[in-house]
Amino acid sequence: MKKKISIFVLLLSFFLFPNISVSDQKEVVTNLMQRPLNYLDLGIINLERDMERSIDRIISRYTSRLLTNLIGDRKEEVEMSVIYNWRKTAVIASISIPMSKGLSENDYLSSSNKCREIFDDVRHSLLRSQPESTLSESQVASYLVEKFYPPSNQPWTLQENYRKALVKLVVLEVVLRPTNKYALSKAVLPVSCNGNLSEEKSDIKIVHNSTIR
Prior knowledge:
It is a single chain. The chain is α+β, with helices and mostly antiparallel strands. It has one domain. It contains eight helices and five strands. It has a five-stranded mixed beta sheet with strand order 1-2-3-4-5. The protein is elongated.
């Protein structure tokens, strides 16, 4: 029954997203889910673990050394999730950070830069174990293959187009959300930015006045 439902969803997605790139990503998803241990779940679990570690590094960077006692409290305020979105055919790794200022319309440029900066920090935190020092699609593909495939599966034999589809499948999203007090007093909304892990910093998509999804 579960297999029939999965096939139905994939067929429905095919008609909703009829393009080669998404088709390749669906092939990746199908391949991952057909594995005995469900490699899609394995990859999500591994990404969640790495995202948790990245939160520690981000908070440490943006918290004064004189205020290290606040790091633990701030970590509890940061929201993080890694989910598979069937509608978008994407694994979305999201981190939401509370902001007490800097999200008004007048702060468009600075909030955009801040979001991209944090995106870049999270990305580098995730990729720091990779031997390649320069950001590239190959570097990201190697990282994601490590997360979604155990060594026993010989992931190094995966075809290049498959590795590229895996890179496009995983999307990192950073949300700068106003604290409740800030949102109510200034009527501001979240700012978010997203892209795959190989995206150039200047190409990371910015969404202003967005709602958290």
